[in-house]
Amino acid sequence: LVKISPTMNVILLLAMITISALVILVTLSRKFSHRFYPLVLSVIAITLLFHVSLVTNYVHQGDNLPEYRTLLLTERNERWDSTIPPILTMNAPYNSMLSLTILPTIYTSLLNMDAIWVLKIVYSLFFSLVPLGLYKLHETRVGKQVAFLSVFFFIANGTFFTEMLGLARQMVAELFFVLLFLVL
After folding, report:
1. Residue 166's closest CA among 129, 100, 120?
2. Quick one: pLDDT at residue 112?
3. Dihedral angle at the C-alpha atoms of 135, 151, 59, 112, nearest 10 degrees?
4. Distance between CA atoms of 165 and 123, rounded to whole angstroms?
5. Dihedrals φ, ψ of 166, to 5°?
6. How far is 63 from 77, CA to CA, in rounded Å?
7. CB 168 within 8 A of CB 65
């Protein structure tokens, strides 16, 4: 159980109110330029992701614990050993995923960060690029304002900023999925 200070509660509440006011301002104001839609969506996505992931110093719920163990195993060995049987490591399919073994280990070394913070910060930043890709996909088909609102509803869905933070491999997969559609 994480105890959050009253000051932190006020900051989180102000962030939610500011996001709501910003979306209302952007959609109702005729003077707000469409050029800033991607920036607004990025700020909202990062704010919502960080308001959940940075609450505690521990790994987020969900599958992140076995993913974290897999990352630590690769980091301690200083190499990825694909021959480790899943039964011995209790990491079932996780050892075969490069987004859980090599990618975070590289970022841990390059950024000189603890593995927990790579999962909490770097992967959240990766995942915050998904709404930008969705916006680019939608704006050519349905218009800028409808694309903005549709992507905002995607971001505002609780799954985006709660459940997905517990699935590091899926955050990277969704980014590549959106990038695939952008290329097509």
Report:
1. 120
2. 93
3. 20
4. 8
5. -90, 5
6. 22
7. no
What's the residue count for the chain?
184
- Rounded to 5 degrees, φ, ψ at 126 are -60, -50
Give start and end residues of each alpha helix (H) in 33-85. 37-53, 64-77
Cα distance between residue 94 and residue 67, in whole Å: 6
DSSP structure class, residue 118: I
Rounded to two decimals, what is the model's pTM? 0.85
Task: Give the helix, strand, coil percentages of the chain, each rounded to 5.
Answer: 75, 0, 25
For the chain, helix (H) and strand (E) counts, in that order, are 11, 0
Query: Distance between CA 112 and CA 89 in Å, rounded?
Result: 26
**Sheet strands (E) in the chain:** none
User: Could you report the per-residue pLDDT of 100-148, keeping only the tens digit for each?
Assistant: 888 899 999 999 999 889 988 999 999 999 999 999 999 989 999 999 9
Q: How much is the average pLDDT of 18-29?
A: 89
Predicted local distance difference test score (pLDDT) of residue 78: 84
Q: How far apart are CA 132 and CA 13, in angstroms?
A: 25
Catalogue the E-assigned strands of 44-151: none
